[in-house]
Amino acid sequence: MSCRTPHWVARQLFCDAILSDYLEVARTAAKTVPTLMYVAEHWADVAEPFCRAQFPETSTCVMGGDRKRVIDESIHSGEMEGAYVSAEFRKDADEYVKGSIPIEELMRRTKRRWEPNREGKGPHA
After folding, report:
1. In a domain? residue 55
2. Is the dihedral of CA 62, 52, 46, 20 positive or negative?
3. What is this structure's pTM?
C-alpha cells in the first residue's frame, strides 16, 4: 500500500493552504492543546520564525522536500481532478522553483488571479 497522499486530497490541501487563513484557529489550538506544526524544508526559513512569533507554544518539525517535486505533484493532482492550470501559474511556479520568488509571492499572485475582473480579465486567467 502506498504511503502517498491521494492526489485529490493533496490538491485540496494545497488549495486550502494557499487560499485560506487559519491563523486564529492555530493560535487558539496552540493555547488549548499540545500542537506541532510541520514545515516543509524549503519554507523553513520563513515559516519557523513566523510560527514562533504567532504561536510560541507550538513546536515545529521541518520536513524534507524540494520545490520542484511539490509543484509538479500539485499541478499533476489538479490536472487529474480536471482543474485548469494556467500558463501564468506555471510561469510563476517555475519562478518559485528556481528560488526567484518566495512562497508568499507565489501565493499573492495565485490569489490575484482569482479576483474577478482584474485588468479586464475574468477570474483565474
Report:
1. no
2. positive
3. 0.47
